[in-house]
Amino acid sequence: MFFFLTVVQAIVAAALVGVILMQRSEGGGLGIGGSPSGMLSARGAADFLTRSTKWLAVVFVVLSIALAALAVETTQGASLETTLDRNVTPIEQQDPLGGTPVTGGEAAPAPNPATPANGDPLAQ
Asked: 55, 67, 49: which is closest to 9 by C-alpha?
């Protein structure tokens, strides 16, 4: 039912866009400008397009409300998982310098530049 109404909603939206684009512009936005007889010219086509725009908009809004109600109804019983599974074994990562593999975010010990190669920090 939800999928069917979604397809109908898409068809109504495409029809609404098409009907709006077919209408003749009467000049100026928000009722500013245009000729005073603009509302009365070509009454037949204008009346049909205006009425079809109105009814398509009404159907679009009603379908939107129905789809929102169906979405709430179908997801109301579902529970959300709010905890993370923390019992995961970390993967083994290779040391980029070619040393031993590092596991679980532990870093390989970095050599101290102040310590000479023989291990005696006082011998220089």
From this structure: 67
Is the pLDDT reported for residue 43 higher than 70?
A: no
What is the model's pTM?
0.50
| Contact (Cβ atoms closer than 8 angstroms) between residue 99 and residue 90 | no
| Distance, C-alpha 73 to centroid of its chain | 21
The DSSP code for 84 is -
Contacts 24+ apart (CB under 8 A), 76-85: none
Q: Which two tokens stand for residue 113?
A: 């530049």
Per-residue pLDDT tens over the stretch 59-70: 999 999 999 999
